TrEMBL record:
The keyword Secreted does not apply. This is LacI family transcriptional regulator. Keywords: DNA-binding, Transcription, Transcription regulation. InterPro entries: HTH_LacI, Lambda_DNA-bd_dom_sf, Peripla_BP/Lac1_sug-bd_dom, Peripla_BP_I. SMART domains: HTH_LACI. The lineage of its organism: Bacteria, Bacillati, Actinomycetota, Actinomycetes, Micrococcales. It comes from Glutamicibacter arilaitensis. One of its GO terms (molecular function) is transcription cis-regulatory region binding. Gene3D superfamilies: 3.40.50.2300, lambda repressor-like DNA-binding domains (1.10.260.40). SUPFAM superfamilies: lambda repressor-like DNA-binding domains, Periplasmic binding protein-like I.
Length: 339
């Protein structure tokens, strides 16, 4: 039989109300010696407080929900680590949901966190051009009932969070590549309806245009490793059938997509960067473990997670932080002398 709070109260020789105040975190604190007796009794009997009762006593569940698109993607797992570390010894626990890029699963995750009465929900991942009306209505209802919502990525009305300046960062990255001597570019642009894909590819292309250059091809497709692998494979096949592969610099709008492009290039027995240069975006931790090391635009991913977590802990403080990335050129875009 499960141990009840009544059993703990009897063991400690106190009233049920006193035992509840000690174990459920009421603002009314019994004397230290009484609290110690109640906790000792709970430990002896193996009693664990009821989370719902604690939430009622404290007016908080001490839970934060984090929704990501793909927890296997190092971009999101690094952000999740930052959120977790920001909570420190606050006593707040992190709940995690991964949507696998499915809008319906994102809605289900938000609904689940609402039913758990989480104190805050953090949404991490690119928003779509036509945002889901049902999701926006859910968020509005959650906020009206005292919940906080933080967005990592693109801003949404009446919500705090971290806005990533993808367009300006992509412009800076293009400028660095041009300064390094690159003149011929192909862009793996991801999905046209994702704001992250659109902003990164638009920023890169705009800088090329202002520099008197044009991308030789802009290829849309799934915002994923496999999507980039297919797109790069098709591009190389077309180039070979047209007379041969010319040296270009391939800009992928995410590091994960860059890894897919690299796989396709190697399967076609081409060298990086001697035959084709590759550059990504995000600076996920695994990039420096790949040979050659991969050029990218560095975002402070773990810090972004920490900032979002700190916002969630500061109840009622609505803030927006704008973050820009820094170009990092590594071996995958190096040009030999005279090229």
């Amino acid at each position: 039989m499960a141990v009840r709070l009544t059993d703990v109260a009897n063991e400690a020789g106190v009233s049920l109300a006193t035992a509840s105040r000690v174990l459920n975190g009421s603002a009314r604190k019994p004397a230290v010696e009484i609290s110690d007796k109640v906790r000792a009794a709970a430990e002896k009997l193996g009693y664990f407080p009821n989370a719902q009762a604690q939430a009622l006593a404290r007016s908080t569940t001490k839970l934060i929900g984090l929704v990501v698109r793909d927890i296997a993607d190092p971009y999101f797992s690094t952000i999740a680590r930052g959120v977790q570390r920001s909570l420190g010894d606050s006593g707040v626990q992190l709940l995690l949901a991964s949507t696998e890029y499915d809008p319906e699963r994102e809605i289900e995750a938000v609904q689940a966190f609402m039913s758990q009465r989480t104190d805050a929900i953090i949404l991490s991942g690119s928003r779509s051009l036509g945002e889901n009306g049902q999701l926006l209505k859910l968020i509005e209802n959650y906020q009206e009932n005292g919940g906080q919502v933080m967005i990592i990525g693109q801003p949404m009305t009446d919500m705090g969070g971290i806005q990533i300046d993808n367009e300006a960062t992509a412009e800076h990255l293009a400028a660095e590549l041009i300064s390094a001597g690159h003149r011929r570019f192909v862009v793996l642009a991801g999905e046209a309806n994702l704001l992250t894909s659109r902003d990164r590819s638009n920023g890169f292309l705009e800088k090329l245009k202002r520099s008197g250059l044009d991308a030789e091809e802009v290829i849309s497709g799934p915002f994923s490793r496999e999507g980039a692998y297919v797109a790069m494979s098709d591009y190389l096949k077309q180039q070979k059938s047209a007379g041969g592969v010319h040296r270009v610099c391939v800009f992928c709008v995410s590091d994960v997509m860059a890894l897919g492009a690299i796989r396709a290039i190697r399967e076609n027995r081409l060298r990086i960067p001697e035959d084709i240069a590759v550059v990504g975006f995000d600076d996920i931790p695994t990039l420096v473990d790949i040979t050659p090391t991969v050029s990218t635009a560095r975002l402070p991913l773990e810090e972004i997670g920490k900032w979002a977590g700190e916002m969630a802990l500061n109840h009622g403080e609505l803030r927006k932080i704008v973050v820009s990335g820094v170009p990092v050129l590594r071996e995958s875009t190096q040009l030999a002398d005279g090229q």
